[in-house]
């Protein structure tokens, strides 16, 4: 199965960045002419790159698929078309998370709740409708800018496909909830949303190419193999679980390595410095190892708390009283200084993890809220250089 979360090539990332930057600045996606010409100046083919991006769902021409962009092959993209990025693209362009992902998931949670609370009738079809007024009533703090962007997002995310929609002469819109919206319940963040989309999209067909003796090559499509997944026991008591004999040990693929926040090689450098510096690095090394452990098992609260502890621990090595002063005054260089300031500004996430008191509504942090590992790695590199 295609993995929308798998790492992209630098060329593919450049394409997404070229599309995202104008949107982040102005709220409008760029024309394809702008994207094509920008990539051409980098000696790259935008049309080829967009077709190379991962997608899930039916093959080209057999239905609507879902990927990192709005592009649905095999259609040609005109110069004046404006193609946008989907929610899944924010996994690769993290700048989109606060402006797209967080507000969309908040809206999605409210829509799921609306569907679950809809009164049902045994005698008539009842469908929930929602409008911008409905959303603002449920989420009073939602921004005008995101509300202006929301219709495009709703059109391109599988979670909000289905159901009719109407747009009045004044531009006000009304939409029906699709019946599959409830299948997007209990999502913790961006990663779980993308995985849910992937699970629910129809499997692509397998294509076998047959050479005709006296004619052109024909593509014959066969249904994809049926995949039996573990499904929860339904309210009727039916359970779709099937007993399957375990695969022989020799056929079981090795487990993928656990993700790490700080590479072991950098931790080894700190351990090598332990006996040659005036600073005691034992606590720093332990904090990093605990951060890696909690990051690997996706514990967002522990990860954010440990990240904050590390940032509060290292400023004396840099000659600074605290990390706020270090972010503003240490000679990082332009790029690393930007990383330091973003970590400084992300301190509020640590406050949220440690100090937010219990409320009456769910308000969970997720692994998508943990800052980029690259930011901390660059800070630690400066710490090692300063030892």
SSE topology string: HHHEEHEHHEEHEEHHHHHHH
Query: How many domains, in number, for the residues?
Result: 3
The helix/strand class is mainly alpha
Strand neighbour order, sheet with most strands? 3-5-4
The tally of helices reads 14
Q: What is the 3D shape?
A: globular
Got a strand count? Answer: 7
**Could you give the distance between the termini?**
47 Å
* Spans where pLDDT lies below 50 across 5 or more residues: 205-247
SSE inventory with pairings:
Layout: H1 10-26, H2 32-41, H3 46-52, E1 55-56, E2 66-67, H4 96-117, E3 129-130, H5 132-138, H6 144-156, E4 165-167, E5 173-176, H7 190-200, E6 206-210, E7 218-222, H8 264-273, H9 282-296, H10 300-313, H11 323-329, H12 334-345, H13 347-355, H14 373-386
Antiparallel strand pairs: 1-2, 3-5, 4-5, 6-7
Q: What are the defining features of this structure?
A:
387 residues; mainly alpha; 3 domains; 3-stranded antiparallel β-sheet; two-stranded antiparallel sheet; 7 strands; 43% helix; 6% strand; globular
């Amino acid at each position: 199965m295609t993995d929308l979360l798998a790492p992209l090539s630098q060329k593919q990332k450049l394409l997404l960045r070229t599309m995202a930057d104008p949107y982040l600045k102005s709220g409008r996606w760029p024309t394809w002419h702008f994207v094509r010409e920008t990539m051409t100046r980098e000696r790259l083919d935008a049309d080829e790159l967009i077709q190379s991006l991962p997608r899930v769902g039916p093959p080209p021409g057999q239905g609507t698929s879902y990927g990192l962009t709005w592009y649905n092959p095999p259609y040609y993209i005109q110069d004046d078309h404006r193609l946008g990025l989907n929610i899944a693209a924010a996994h690769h362009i993290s700048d989109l998370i606060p402006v797209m992902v967080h507000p969309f998931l908040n809206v999605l949670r409210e829509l799921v709740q609306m569907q679950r609370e809809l009164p049902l009738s045994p005698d008539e079809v009842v469908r929930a409708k929602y409008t911008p007024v409905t959303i603002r009533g449920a989420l009073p703090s939602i921004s005008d800018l995101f509300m202006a962007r929301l219709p495009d997002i709703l059109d391109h995310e599988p979670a909000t496909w289905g159901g009719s929609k109407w747009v009045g002469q004044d531009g006000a819109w009304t939409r029906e909830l699709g019946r599959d919206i409830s299948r997007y319940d209990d999502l913790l963040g961006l990663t779980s949303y993308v995985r849910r989309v992937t699970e629910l999209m129809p499997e692509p067909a397998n294509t076998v190419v047959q050479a005709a003796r006296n004619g052109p090559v024909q593509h014959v499509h066969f249904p994809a193999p049926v995949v039996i997944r573990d499904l929860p026991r339904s309210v009727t008591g039916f359970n779709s679980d099937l007993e399957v004999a375990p695969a022989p040990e020799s056929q079981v693929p090795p487990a993928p390595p656990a993700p790490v926040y700080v590479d072991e090689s950098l931790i080894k450098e700190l351990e090598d410095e332990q006996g040659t510096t005036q600073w005691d690095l034992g606590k720093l090394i332990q904090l990093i190892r605990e951060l890696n452990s909690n990051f690997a098992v996706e514990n967002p609260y522990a990860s954010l708390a440990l990240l904050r502890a590390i940032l509060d621990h290292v400023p004396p090595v840099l000659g600074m009283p605290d990390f706020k002063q270090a972010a503003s005054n240490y000679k990082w260089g332009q790029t690393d200084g930007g990383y330091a300031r973003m970590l400084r500004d992300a301190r509020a996430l640590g406050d949220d993890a440690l100090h937010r008191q219990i409320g009456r509504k769910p308000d969970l942090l997720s692994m998508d809220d943990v800052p980029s590992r690259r930011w901390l790695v660059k800070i630690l590199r400066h710490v090692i250089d300063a030892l």
